[in-house]
Amino acid sequence: MVWEQQCTLVVMLTTLVERGRIKCHKYWPDLYETDTYGHLQVSCVRQKETPSFAFREFTLINTQNREERHISHMQYLAWPDHGVPDEASDFLTFVQRVRRSRDGMVEPTVVHCSAGIGRTGVLVLMETAMCLVEAHEPVYPLDLTRDMRDQRAMLVQTPSQYKFVCEAILKVYNEGIVKPLPEYQRCLTTTV
Fold first, then answer.
1. What is the tens place of the pLDDT at every residue in 95-136?
2. Which one of 7, 44, 113, 166 is the catalytic residue?
């Protein structure tokens, strides 16, 4: 899928094992190693980990035509095994890093957790809310969640996830973590 859709960024919101259960299979090689999947060769050329995040760079080579692509892999490690984070700061830092990585990108981004609906939905809703704040637009989390669920059933899977993302949106707004962009403010003053 990454090759076919020409993705250059993969965002992973789970660890490989949680509470003794496999949540996601490791689909990348260790640092400085190469694995082959069909006609695609994947090499991990860079890796940096903090307690909350892992950042990796992969080289992906199509062995049929020798075409080479570079993929960034960002993994959020601080989501607890059960429930939601107690505090949104680490998550918001991660979302901001994802947003900076996507700045100017036209290729689609792959976002996944284990089932693809809970944590993935939280990240998509949070990023959408941040974009709306920048565009000086109102943020209605319930409406956004309903719209997202038209595309993928059950996004933002649990009430605790919904509450967490709503509190994170308030934090972003109240603390000025994301602000309306000047180009949108100019549009508002000239159209009012």
1. 999 999 999 889 999 999 988 888 999 999 999 999 999 999
2. 113
Which of 56, 89, 114 delimits the end of a domain?
Answer: 114
The verdict on 121 and 169 lying in the same domain is yes
71 shares its domain with 98 = yes
Active site residue 131: no
Long-range contacts of 14-17 (CB under 8 A, 24+ apart): 14/76, 14/79, 14/112, 14/113, 14/114, 14/119, 15/75, 15/77, 15/79
On whether both 154 and 110 belong to a single domain, the answer is no
The reply to whether 125 and 184 lie within a common domain is: yes
When pLDDT is averaged across residues 79-102 and rounded to a whole number, the result is: 91
User: Is the per-residue pLDDT at 166 higher than 80?
Assistant: yes
- Domain region containing 91: 1-114
* Residue where a domain stops, chosen among 114, 129, 144: 114
* Domains of the chain: total: 2
pLDDT computed for residue 181 by the predictor: 87
